[in-house]
Amino acid sequence: MGRKDTRSAAVSVSGLTKRYDGPEGEVRALDGVSFRIDPGQVVGILGPNGAGKTTLIKSMLGLIVPTEGDVVIDEITVTDDSTDVYSHAGAMLEGARNIYWRLTVRENLEFFATLAGHSPDAVRDRHDELLELFGLTEKADVAVRELSRGMKQKVSLATTLSRGCSVLFLDEPTLGLDVESSLELRRELRRLVDRQSLTVVLSSHDMDVIESLCDRIIVLNDGRIVADSTIEELTAIFESQAYDVTMNEPLPEGVRRSIERTHTVEQWTQTADGKETFTVVLARAELLYDLVETLEESGRVIESIDSTDPDLETAFLEITGQKTDEPSAATGEEGTRQRADDGQPSKKDVTARRQYRPDDERPSEAGGEN
Question: How many CB atoms neighbour CB 324 within 10 A?
């Protein structure tokens, strides 16, 4: 990390700190943030509201002057020359009018390329490729204001790439889009990353966008990095053994208390058909056998025990210390995951389920799909 060998890094952030004077004293939006990103990596920036994500991205782009620290993009120190870095880096920011709505799609591409010193004729072939990549060829001569919101987002992204930048910053690229438009833009981003080998820094509340695009995740909390790893490594850290148990009828109160003394029980629920379900977290996987024995000795019938592997959202909530019922950067209201799909569980969600049935000899590590 830091300034070591910055020439081989597409992005290098070293000791980045931003302090503000607040009504109750000094506020540290960023507190000694350091990391490096290799060329071609796609890195996601996650964090709860107020964690410092926007301050970090704007500081990396030179839009905010940090109190301390350095940012180097393609061997250019942003804190020394933020203007020169714009020939190497492009950004699509949340809530910003990234394009001119009165201009046509092609005119936007040409305008922003010209600002970077490129002749429109010299980059026309590249612009044609971008229009084709984002499905905008037929809309090239249409004023942006006449396009749908999803199309506007595509134009913003194409415009960001119109100058031939090597490092791309995307802040909430799917925000405000309907399900279909969000999914389509996500597919376009995936193709873009695969075809052009760009270095991408991506901030999003949409966990499916992060999971489908990013090689690595940096989690911020209170202005500091609290995790920096791959999605697989982050979720493996929090692979707690949580099980959803269904009994044919409610357990005796004494059995309930016994289970609660030994394990963490998150919820007891009685269903309309007289069954009882509860979620239990075990400290170790082998404790499942003891739990099964306790349940069988209760005189009730175990209908099912389902184990769910942790996903990125679970890891995020654990790392930042948020409860599952709190709104967060990873979730919408009441912890409901925001999906850019058709509302059905993703393949990852489905295949992450492991099941145990009382007829099995042992808990299965590769049970069928739910």
Answer: 13
Spatial contact of 79 and 70, defined as CB atoms under 8 Å apart: yes
The whole-model pTM stands at: 0.66
Give the three-class secondary structure for 89: strand
pLDDT in tens, 20-32: 888 888 989 999 9
At CA 316, angle to CA 11 and CA 346, rounded to 5? 100
**Per-residue model confidence (pLDDT) at position 179:** 80
The mean pLDDT value for 179-184 works out to 81
Query: What is the tens place of the pLDDT at every residue in 295-327?
Result: 999 999 999 998 766 566 766 666 666 654 444
Name the percent of the chain in helix, strand, coil, to the closest 5: 35, 25, 40
CB atoms within 10 A of CB 282: 18
Instruction: Give the pLDDT band of residue 368 (cuts 50, 70, 90).
Output: very low
Q: Residue 288: pLDDT above 90?
A: no
d(Cα 169, Cα 57) in Å, to the nearest integer?
A: 8
Q: How many CA atoms lie within 13 A of 348 on its CB side?
A: 13
Say if residue 283 is exposed, middle or buried (CB neighbours under 10 Å; 0-12, 13-18, 19+). exposed
Contact 154, 188 (CB under 8 A): yes
Are the CB atoms for 355 and 303 separated by under 8 Å? no
Backbone angles phi, psi at 96, to 5 degrees: -105, 150
Element (H, E) at 35: strand 25-37
d(CA 131, CA 173): 18
* Token digits of residue 26: 């000094």
Q: Is 275 helix (H, G, I), strand (E, B) or coil?
A: coil
Domains of the chain: 6-235 (3.40.50.300), 240-308+340-356 (3.30.70)
Structural tokens at position 226:
């609290």
- Is the pLDDT at 126 greater than 80? The verdict is yes
Write the DSSP symbol of residue 122: T
Confidence (pLDDT) at 111: 94
Hey, what are 110's tokens? 């040409």
